[in-house]
Each structure stands twice: as C-alpha cells, then as structure tokens.
Amino acid sequence: MPYIDIKHLTKDYGNGRGIFDMSLAVEKGEIYGFVGINGAGKTTTIRHMMGFLTPDEGTVTINGLDATKSSAEVKRYVSYIPGEINFPGNSTGEDFLKDQLYLSGRGDWTHAVKISDQFQLDVTANVRSMSKGMKQKTAIVSAFASDADILIMDEPTTGLDPLMRDIFIELLKDEKAKGKTIFMSSHIFQELEEICDRVAIIRDGTIIDVIDMRDIRYNKTKTYKMEFKSFEDFDHFRSLGYNLNRIKLEDLQLNITIHDKDINHLIQDLKHFDLVYFKEIKATFEAYITQIFKEEK
Ligand SMILES: Nc1ncnc2c1ncn2[C@@H]1O[C@H](COP(=O)(O)OP(=O)(O)OP(=O)(O)O)[C@@H](O)[C@H]1O
C-alpha cells in the first residue's frame, strides 16, 4: 500500500478552478516532487493531505488513515511546511521551535540547534519581526527537527538564497537516508531534478505526467551537437542516415540523437570528418518539462 495515496481527488471551486479527479501514490522512503505553474492546484492538493480541506470527491490516505476523517492522528506522522508562513504569537524563534517540538511529541532540540546553525538562523529573534527568509528557515528547522516519518512541504525553498537552498537539499538527502518520505512542491526544476525520485506535473488541476527521475538521470539516448569545417563534410554526414535535428545549414551545425550502444559506430564514422567541435547536450529536467508543456498545448 502506498504511504500517501490520493485517489480521484476533486475540489471544484467553479470556473475550471480547483483540482479534478487527481490520483497519485507516494511510496515509503520516496522523495516525491510536485511541479506546476501558479494556480495549477499544488496548494489545494497539499491542504487536502493535511486535512485542512474536505474533498468534493475522492480520498487521501496517509499510512492507511483517511487524511480528512483522521486528521489529528495523521498529523502524528507528518511534519508540514505551509506555502505561506504566519507564526502565531509573539515568541522568539527558540521558544517557538521548542513549543513545536513539545507539541509534536517527537524531535530533538540539539538537532534543531544544529540545523539552525547550518542555516545561520538567529533563533533569538522574535517570530513576528522575522524576514521572509528567516521565517522559512524557522519552519524548515521545525519540520526537520521534529523527526516525523513524513515531510509535506509547500514550496519550502521560497525566500531562500541559492546557498541556503543547497543546505536545504543536503538536509533533505539526510532525511531520505533516514528512510523519511518526502512530498514537496516547487517551482525550481533544478532542485527537483537533484533530489526527487519521482515528480508529478500538475496543470489545470490535473496530473499530466509523472516522471521517474532515473529516466532523466540515466537516459541512454543522448544528444550531441557538432559543427563541421566544410559544407562538403556537413552534407556528406547528413547523408549517413543518423537521427538528426536542429540542422543549421548557415553555421554547418547539427544535433544528433543516438543511443549509447551506437556511439562507437558514430565515433568511427566521425574519423572521416573535420569538426570544429563535438559536445553532448545534457538532457535537463527543465527541457523535459518544457517539452511536455509544449506537447500539451
Ligand atoms: N478558496 C478558494 N476559492 C476559490 N478558488 C480557489 C480557492 N483556493 C484556490 N483556488 C483556485 O484554485 C486554483 C488552484 O490554486 P492553488 O493555490 O492550489 O494553486 P498552486 O498550484 O498552489 O498555485 P501557486 O503556485 O500560485 O501557489 C487556482 O485557480 C486558485 O485561484
């Protein structure tokens, strides 16, 4: 049974807004990403997971428990970082974090201090007067230090600078190594590419694709770009029957897409050609998603 199981979830806000017949399943120990443009339905989905919203149709179960009906019990397994952070009260970061750890019944203050230091977070500051980045860091420290089985995070790196984002990614890897299950939405393709096992792409309230990141990382079909010194070579190469694309006659450049098993054959052929350069075009997750969105239009 999946650890997080969403089946046919629908929340219809009218005028085509909301989420519609959405299903997804997250296995224990997975890092699962959730990507989509503004208004696609990420927060609405996450709020159902936390039991803050009641579905019009469908169900969300977490570790076999209904996220709406058993919301209090589900929260025992889950640490949550909301998309918009507004801390209640007027306490210092330290008092807030200690309260959260106490309330969760789990976690460890020493770990909280360690993570706060890594994030260069001043926990003596008042939570009300904290900047956006400080609030985000405080929420992250609270979630990570509470040692929950599941982390559900709505755009957790918003407001973090690139250095802090790298620290966040390293912490997330540590959590995965401990066997934690992580569900996070993000706009930042690069961070999803680096850490996720799978990524669901949401558009207009519907999941349009689920990408297994291994297919991107270990893609056996690669694209190479090359430029020829002479038109004769360029023209001759074009006649060899390779899978070519992005042919730029005026620059004598082209891309070739080829499976790893055929690379030796290509190298042998290229010995007969005079090249200006030959380089691999790395397949990025961003390019992959952009292609999917183009195909969907
Ligand atoms: N309470 C509500 N009442 C009416 N419409 C809503 C409500 N909450 C969300 N919506 C609409 O539902 C759609 C999905 O919103 P949601 O906040 O889930 O998207 P999102 O993918 O999280 O977007 P963002 O990246 O901007 O946070 C949007 O069109 C939004 O305007």
From TrEMBL:
Positions of the ABC transporter domain = 4-229
Q: Which UniProt keywords apply?
A: ATP-binding, Nucleotide-binding, Transport
Q: Where does the source fall among the domains of life?
A: Bacteria
For whether the record's keyword set contains Membrane, the answer is no
Q: Which GO terms describe its molecular function?
A: ATP binding; ATP hydrolysis activity
One Pfam family name is ABC_tran
Note the SUPFAM superfamilies from the entry: P-loop containing nucleoside triphosphate hydrolases (SSF52540)
Q: What is this protein called?
A: ABC-2 type transport system ATP-binding protein
